[in-house]
Amino acid sequence: MIDNDAVHEIAIVTGASRGIGAAVALAAARKGYGVVVNYSSDAPGADDVVGKILAEGGQAMAVQADVSQPADVGRLFDAAAAWGPVTAVINNAAITGNLIGTLAEVPAATVQRVMDVNVSGMIFMCQEAVRRLSTDHGGPGGSIINISSTATKGRFPRHLGSLRGVERCRGRSDGWPGSGSGQAGHSRQCRRSRQHQHRTPRSCRNARPRGEAQSNHSHGPGR
Fold it and tell me: What does the alpha-carbon distance between residue 177 and residue 118 come to, in Å, rounded to a whole number?
């Protein structure tokens, strides 16, 4: 049972049923936060994380919500707010969508689902966090942490490839339409790509990297 009087600040951790999300949830609990362990489909995993936190004397509860659905995001914050003031939101939920094969073979539905969870889901969480935490909206203030992935710096020749892979177009005539001034245009695009690849959003510069083994890069639906 949750003791409301013992919890002063609440942290929401998305995709926290295992991996890095679970580790973040445990760390937050050790810092004194009451932790909302969010999951999408892995209820046993989320319950296990809650059990570990409770065993250490912390406070936690599991809340199912698909972060790609705005209504679910609102419900997640409602559940947390009913427990206490939310002052930390850690966006960790993400999926790979079981991307297998070449780029040309990836179904459109898979691409859309990955974008819905990894991009839209993070944005929906940030929007709701601002509405509820920002002092401009009458909230208590707090922090939003968006966890990135080491995959953003890797190369995936059979999938989407990295921006660094685009550099290979320099000085090449094969594989690119047109020639002459057209190639110069491609080279300019490559230079822009290299510039952009080194730009990291300010809110994510201190984010912890994560690998394929964590909960939020599973090969199934989000946890």
Answer: 33
Reported as a single tens digit per residue, the pLDDT across 63-83 is: 999 999 999 999 999 999 999
| CA distance linking residue 103 with residue 127, whole number of Å | 31
Alpha carbon distance 21, 147 (integer Å): 9
Q: For the chain, what's the residue count?
A: 223
- Taking only the tens place, the pLDDT of each residue in 20-50 is 999 999 999 999 999 999 999 999 999 999 9
Report d(CA 145, CA 208) in Å as an integer: 10
Reported pTM = 0.69
Q: Which one, of 65, 51, 49, lies nearest residue 17 by Cα? A: 49
Contact yes or no for 10/86 (Cβ under 8 A): yes
Reduced to 3 DSSP states, what percent helix, strand and coil does the chain have, rounded to the nearest 5? 50, 15, 40
pLDDT band of residue 223 (cuts 50, 70, 90) is low
